Hints:
mainly alpha; Farnesyl Diphosphate Synthase
Amino acid sequence: xxxxxxxIAGSRPRTLPSAxxxxxxxxxxxxxxxxxxxxxxxxxxxxxLALQIGVNYANDYSDGIKGTDEIRIGPVRLVGQGLAAxxxxxxxxxxxxxxxxxxxxALVVITNEWWLILVGAAAIAAAWFYTGGKYPYGYLGLGxxxxxxxxxxxxxxxxxxxxxxxxxxVDVIASCAVGLLICTLLIVNNLRDIPTDRIAGKRTLAVKxxxxxxxxxxxxxxALTFVLTVWVAALTSWWVLLALSxxxxxxxxxxxxxxxxxxxxxxxxxxxxxMLVLVYGLxxxxxxxxx
Length: 291
């Protein structure tokens, strides 16, 4: 039976910056319009965090029962390592999705924007079918699209919309910037797992593209985030360029990835990239709100 610390590790807390950063940026975008509503931003954050934890448990469950996690280098796998029963992990995933659904429904009721239920349902379905079901799209090389849409576009634009009831061009650009940055987390994770994913028949984008091209895409996503942030600054305030100082944290992971790092060192890259996502998101949000 898994301990509390193992359950926490199984939720993969190092991935939580992927939920915090986009909501923070969305809040920063509405704050600069003097439209910030704390309760709605908090509910959006709960939705994002619960979905992130839910997809982590769902992946643990689905990959565990398929045997994909039998040989892994990385975080705790509750099912794959036999630490918890598959059914328990599945229920943990559903419980997390339930929390996200309740917080999302609260936002729907507050805003009276009932069509947002469809967005929430799509997010939960995407979280489950990433590795779940008979034809998981994560096994088909489509995971990065899911991350870009549901951890970039949806949380940023959703946070903005439930407070302003409109979306501007700068909101879309900012959501693309953070979405691409968050994609680097999945890219380096899948880069690390190329050997074992090939054996398990998991055709991630990294498996399809191969080692070298995956490394280049990792660096390209970093570079595109940099460029899009400059664009956001041009549309808001040049003070936002200060957010680019966070890319000092990108130097080491990019050097390791382009230098051919493999195995455990890529786990370190994952940690460093997660810190970059968090710092970038919070700094960008603060600067947007301030200017």
